[in-house]
Amino acid sequence: MVNVGETPRSWSGAPFRYIAGHVALDLVNTVDWTAAGLVEDRLNSYERLVEWSVGAKLVSARTGERLCAHAARRMTAAARALRDARALRHAIRRLVLARLGHEAADPSLTADAALASLSRMAQAAAMHHQLAVVRRPGAKRSAPAIDWVWTGLDDAEPPLDLIVWMAAHAAAALVSSSSVDRWGVCPGATCGWLFMDTTRNGQRRWCEMATCGTRAKDRRRRGPLRARPTPGGKETDR
Ligand SMILES: [Zn+2]
Known about the structure:
- It is a single chain.
- By secondary structure, the protein is mainly alpha-helical.
- It has one domain (23-226): Jann2411-like fold, CATH 1.10.3300.
- It has 7 helices and 6 strands.
- It has helices at residues 23-28, 46-55, 61-73, 75-99, 111-126, 162-175, 209-222; strands spanning 32-34, 37-39, 129-134, 145-150, 183-185, 194-196.
- The strands form 3 sheets. It has a two-stranded antiparallel sheet with strand order 1-2.
- Strand 1 (32-34) and strand 2 (37-39) form a beta hairpin.
- The model is unreliable at 227-233 (pLDDT under 50).
- It binds zinc ion.
- Zinc ion (ZN) binds at residues 186, 188, 191, 193, 206-207, 211-212.
- Zinc ion binds at residues 186, 188, 191, 193, 206-207, 211-212.
């Protein structure tokens, strides 16, 4: 059972990892979901959320700089957007676990509440996602394309909710897709990260072999008596 309190038990300035195979699951993996609660939360500021989104290729580095500058002038709105990103992260994880049959894994957020929350965020996102004529770099002027674009993406002051909109849009597409048989939860004792198993034989078990996979292997080698995890956190850095 994962006890997800409002406040993480610890924060982390560690680099973000993008190992999930889907941006919505990479958002989930910005914190460790342990039995004791949320540990090593990497989303500890709006700037860190922007950093994550640039690394996830949701926005460009230039848009990221503009978002940070805008956030410095509107700190309350930025704090709200950060809260929404954490709530979205929680809802995504809850829905994935529910669809994988882990119904009782998180009593702090029911699957119905998670679905309502994601639906609300995706609807809000849709209000800012519109069809527009776009010009591809290098394309002929006479042949513009039509594509979906995000409102304010290229503004000098991009909307502070932009990242949440983009992530909610991606998450809604994921949970309503038929890819559920490819979703996985890392069984690492202090991990709880999610991933898409894109291996041909569907054998992916760990978030990363180099962290949780290796740890489990070492534990098996040492034997059960020395296999206890370090209390209150991860045994080694990611
Ligand atoms: Zn793991």
